[in-house]
Protein 1
Amino acid sequence: MAAVSPSAALESEPDPAVAVDPATASIAEPGDRASIQHSPASTTTDGSPLSPADPYQVIRINLTDDGDARWSIETRFLITDDEDETVFEEYAAEVAAGNRDVGYESTQFDAVVADVAASSGREMRIEDDGWDQPRIEEPEDEYDDDVRIGVISYSFTWTEFSRVDENRIYFDDTLQADNGSWLDLGDGQRLVIESPSGYFLETPTDLEWDGPHEFEEGELDIIFVQGSGPAGLSLEYLLAGLIIVLVGGFVLYRVWQSADEERLPDWLPASAPSSAESSSSASTPTDSGGGQTVPDDRADGDLAGPSSTSIEFDEEIDDDVDPELLSDEERVLRMLKQNGGRMKQANIVKETGWSNAKVSQLLSQMDDDESIEKLRIGRENLITLPEVDPTEID
C-alpha cells in the first residue's frame, strides 16, 4: 500500500481521474529525502475510475507508552454511489487476501530500521504487519452529502520507535537525520502523530502536517508528558488546587458557623444550628398571642437538607474525575453525558484537542461497538448515546 522512495524518484500527485492503488514499498537510507508513494490502478467494473480523496494518503503514527509506534498508511477513495461502494469492497478484499499484487513487503523497511537502531542505540524491528479491515467513513472535510470515504490501510508496529524516560516520551531521533527528516510529504499526503492515552504535549506544537512539506531539522523534536493537561497543568498542580479549594471552603464554613453560634441561645448546643432553625420554623405564634402553632410546610424540607447536600457532594466528586485517567472512549462517553447525551462531532474535536482523524476513527469504532450512535445531518455528524432519541433536538 505504501512506498518510501528517494525524492529524485518522487511522483507528482495522481490525476483525480485516476484511482489510487497501494504501491510497492522502498525505503531510502536515513539522510536521504524520502516519501511514501502509491501508483494509480483501480477502476470500476465499467472502466470508470475511483477518484482519490483529499488527502489521498494519511500516514498515521500512533505512539504507545512503552515507546513502540503503530504505523498505519491509509489510502483513501471517494465513494459516491452503490457501484463505487461495491467496487471498493471487492478491491479491498482482494488486496487484503493477497490476491492483488501490490508489491509491498515489510522486509523493505529492514534497512532503514537497522540504520536508525544503530544511530539511536535502541533495538528496533518491524512486527505485526498486515492489512487492516477496510472501512467506509464519513468525510472530515466538506463534500456533497452523498460522498463517503473508503479507506484501505496497511499497519505495522515499529518497536522502540521513541525514547522513554520516566514519564516522558521523546519523538525526536527516529525520523531525523543529519540534514533533517528522511521523510517528506508529497502533495495530497498527510502525516498525523497521535500520543498515547494520558499523555499530552510538553510544549504546544503541530501533530498534523499536509503535503507538500519538507521537515526541517528539529521540527519533529516533540515531547509528550504523562499526566499533564492540554493547558500544561500537571496532575500535581490540579491536586494542589483541589486541596486549596477544599481548605478554603472549610474555613468559610467555620466562619459562618462561628457567626451563627453567636446568635444561638446559651442552652442550645452549637453543633446543631440546622435543628434550631428547623424547630423555629416548624411552629409560628398566632396573631392572637396564644400558644397555638401553625405547621410550616417548609419544615420537612429543612430536615431533609443534610441528605440532599450529601447527594450533591457525591455528584461533584464524579464531575471532578480527572479526564487524563480515563480511556479515550470513556472521555467521549463522559462528555456526551455532560451534554445531555448528544454532541456534534466538531465539538468533540474542539473539547478534546484531538485531531479530526483521530476523533473520526474513534467514533467509528464506538459506533461499531454500539456504545454510541452517529447520525449525519447535512454536513454535520451528530453523536448520541444509544438511549437518546436524536430526533428530540431542541
Protein 2
Amino acid sequence: MLWDELPDEILLQILRYLEPCHISRLQPVSRKVRKFCLDDEVWKRLCFQDSSWYHALQNRRGSPKTPDDRRTAAPLRDPAPDCDEPRPQSRRWRELQDLANWDPAYPGERVAWYDEYRQRHGPVSVNWLQPPRSHDGGGLEAAAEARGLALYSPHDGNDGLGTALALSPLDDGSVCLWDIRGTRGRQGAILARSRPGRLFTDSPPGRYARRFKKLDSGATECVSVNNNSHRAFFAIQSHLVEVDLNRLDVVSRESFEWSITTLSAVDDGVPLTVGTSLGIHLHDFRARARVPRDVVERLDGPWRGETDVLRALFDPKPLPPYAPLSQPTPINILHLPRQGWPELASDDIYVSGRFSNILHYDRRKFPSIAGSIYSGALIKSLASLPLSFSTVDSELRRKGELGAERVARMKRAGQGQTLIAGGGYNTKGSLEMYGLSAAADSAGHGMLQNSAMKNRQTAASATILGTA
C-alpha cells in the first residue's frame, strides 16, 4: 500500500512512533505525507516530550519512562488489578495535564511547532558573514570591525521575499548590510555598504582612514531600526545619527549632552528613548534636524564638526526635558507593549543598567519617574510577555499540579504582563520575572505586584547578556 493510500489516522499513528529525524526525511515522499509531517500537533507533542521540563518532572515522580511514549506501543489490555501501573485512562489524563502545564503559548499566539522543535533541539549550525574590508590612505587592506548589530526586515518581512538583513556600523564610519537568508544575493554576503566616514560627526574630509573612535565603548545597544520607514539610528558617542537604508545616507543628526549608552527599539507613534551616561531622553525622530548641505556659519574650522560644537555652546535655547540618573550608565531600554496590541508600544518605559533597580517611566508624565523595581542584580537585558506572572501558579505549573482547565482559565482571564530581566549577580547569571498589573489608570498601569521570581543559582554560569 502506498503512503497516500493510508488513512489519516493510521498515518498519524505511524508518525507517533518515529524519531524526529525520520519524520523530517519523510517530507519529500508526497504532498499528503509532507502535510502530516509538518502537523503542529505532532511537533508540539515532540517539543513537550523532549523538553527538559518534562524530563525533570518525570525524574521527580521517579518514572523516567514517559507514559504513552512515542517509541513504545501502549498495552492492548488493561493491567491486572494488583498491578501498580496506572490505567490507560489515568495515564492519558496525566499526560494532558502535564502538556497543559508545560505549554508556553499564550492565547492567540501562533506557534510553528516544527520550527520551534528545530530551534530547541536541532543541531547548532554556525555560518559566518562575509568579513568587511577597509583601505587606508596607503592602499593597504585591513579588516573593518563591526561596532554594533541589528536585524533589518524591510516591511517587517512582508516584502514578498522574506528578506532579512544584518545591519552594522563599521569602524571606518561606513554602514554595512549583509543578506542573511540569501534572498537578494549569496547567503551571508555583503549586500551594500556606504562610503567610509558617513557616520563621522567631527572629522574633516580625507581623514577617514583612521579607526572609528566615535562609538562609545559603553554602548551596548547602539543600533535601532525602523523596518517600515527603512531608517536606522546609530549612537556615535554623544550623537544620534539617522540613516536612510535605501540610500545608505545620513538624513539627520542630533547631539546630546553626554555619551549615548543605549537606544530603545523604534516603535510607530512614539518617540525613540535614548539612554545617555547620566540621563534618559525622548527623541521625536519625526521632527528631525536636517543635515545642512552648505555651512553658512563658519568660524575658523574648515569642517562642520567644530561649528556644531561651538554653536551648541552658545545656543540660548534651554535643554529639552530629560530624566537625570542618580547612578550612571543605563544599558537596556524596553518599551512595554500595549495590552492586547503587542505590535504597539504603551506609555510604559523600563530602564535597566549598572544599578540595582529597574526604573519605570510613564511617557505621559516624563521626566518624572513612575516607580522602580528592586532587583539587586546588574540587569543587562529586558523583555516582556503578554501574560501576567504569578509566583504561586508558576510553582504549581512547574510541579505539574495545575489541572488543564485551570491552566486554560488562568491564561484567558489573566490581565497584565510579565517583565523578564536577565543579568548578573555575584559572577553568576540572574534570570528574573516580575508580574505587572494591567490597571487602565496611569497610577496603576505597570506597577509591580506581589509576584516575582529570581533564579540566581541555575539560570546560567555567567552573566546573561540577552533575553528575547
Protein 3
Amino acid sequence: MFNTEHLQEKWQPVLEHPDLPEIKDPYRRAVTTVILENQEKAMSEDREFLGEATPANATGANIANWDPILISLVRRAMPSLIAYDICGVQPMTGPTGLIFAMKARYTSQAGNEALFNEANTAFAMQKAGGTATQVGADVVSAITTTNYSVQHGMTTTTAEGLGNAYTPTVNAFAEMAFSIEKSTVTARSRALKAEYTMELAQDLKAIHGLDAETELANILSAEILAEINREVIRTIYITSKNGAQTNVTTAGTFDLDTDSGGRWSVEKFKGLMFSMERDANVIARDTRRGKGNILICSADVASAMTMAGLLDYQSALQDNLNVDSTGNTFAGVLNGRLKVYVDPYANMGVPYTGSGASANQYYCVGYKGTSPYDAGLFYCPYVPLQMVRAVGENS
C-alpha cells in the first residue's frame, strides 16, 4: 500500500483523465491505484485462462472487449464510494488478507491493555503515597463517600537504584509491551447476469446507436457498486448501539415534544443537537479514540439542523451543499465538527410506527480518525468487477 508511487505513474493517464472528477485525497488516489492494478491482473488472468481453453476467435477474444469498460467503471465509481468517508478502507492484493492493530500492554504481551482506561498512577513507581483524606466538613449532597487514593512518584535515590543487579526482583523496572492483533479478511463475491439476442443488439444499434453489451455492463456494474454502498450503511446500522439513553421518556427514542424542553421549533432542534453531542461523548468514553465526528441521518433531521442554524452547508471544501436526498449524500458540517451525511433511502420500506411526518426519523453517530486505520469498520476491496461472455442457444 505504501509502494504505490510507481503504480500511480503507470495509471496516471487514467487517474487524471480530464472527463472524470479529480481525486484530491492522496489516500483515496492510492487505493484507487491498487484497485486498478488488481483489476488489470484479474482481467489478464482471465484472458490467459480462456485463451488456453478455447480456440482463437472464441470466447477468449471477448475478454479484451471489456478492458476499457471495466477500467473506466472502476476509475469512475471506486473513489466515490461512501466507505472512504465513514469507515476505513484497506485494499487487498490477494483474495485473502489480514487487518492488523497494535495494542499497548502492561508488564507483557499478555498483560492488561494500557492507554485505554484511566492511567494507573502506581504502575511506574514503587513507594505508594498515603490515602487522601477529606479536609473540613462534608459538603451537602456529596457526589461520593469514597475517598480517592493517589500514588506519587518515587524519590531520585529510589529511581537511581532501579535495575540493580544484586536485587533484581526488588528494584525492577515496571515493564510495558505491545501486541499485534490480527483479523483475517476474505474477499466475497456478488454475481449478476444479463441476456440479449442478436436481433436486440442489431436493433438497438440501428435505431438508438447504442451497444447492447456496453449498456448491460453499465447496468450490472452500477447495481453491484450501489449494493456495496448500501452494505456499508446497513452494516453500520445493524452493529450500532441505541443512543438517547438518558433524560428521555423512552430509552432509544428522542421525542422533540417531551424530551427537548424547547418552547418552539429552534429550541427543540437544539435539544436534539444536545442529544447528538451526548451520544458522541459516549463514543469517546467507550472507545477512548475520540468523540463521534460522523452523523448519518434522515433528510428531515438534517433539515432540522439547517433550520436551527447549526448545519453549515457553505463549506469551503465543497460549495453549494444542501439537504437533498436525491443527490449528494454529504450535507455539511454540524457545529463545525460533525460531518453530516443524508441517507437517501431512509425510511424506505419501513412502516411508520408513529403519527405524522416525524415518525421514524433517525440519526446515527460514529467516529472515524484522521488515519484510514483508525475506524470502527473496515472495507477491504480486491477486484471490483469481472465480466465474461457466453453464447447460448436460448438467446
Protein 4
Amino acid sequence: MDRDEDRSDDGSPVTGMRIPPGVETHGDYHVVDRGDHETSWGRFTHVEIHRVDDSPTHDWYDLFELKNELFGEDRAALEVYPPAERLVDDTNSYHLWVLEADAELPFGIHDADSTNRGTVIPGRRPDPEDVPDR
C-alpha cells in the first residue's frame, strides 16, 4: 500500500492510501477480507478495517454498523486485544472475526446467553433472586 497523491472529483489533491485490489471502501473505512478460518468455535471470517483518513479513531458503533452491513445483523463478531508480546501495531487497523450466522460463542454478556446462566463473573453483582438465603 504505497502512499500516493490522488485527485478528488474537483481536481484538488488528496493525500492518502491508494486502494489496492481486494479492498472495499464503506463510508469512512477501508475493509480488507482476510479470509475464512475454521476453529473449534466454528468458522470465522477475518476482516481488517482502517479509516480512509488513516486516523486512529476507533468508534465501536461504526464497526458494529459495518459488521451488520457486510455480514448481517444476525452474526456475532469479535475484536481481539492480544498479549503485549504478540502486538502488531504498524497501522491504525482493527480486526474483526465474524462468526457464521448459526454459530454461538461459548460466552456472552446478557442473561439470555445460555452459556452464562448460573455462572459467577468476578466483579459482577449477582441478581438478588440468585443469592441463596443465609
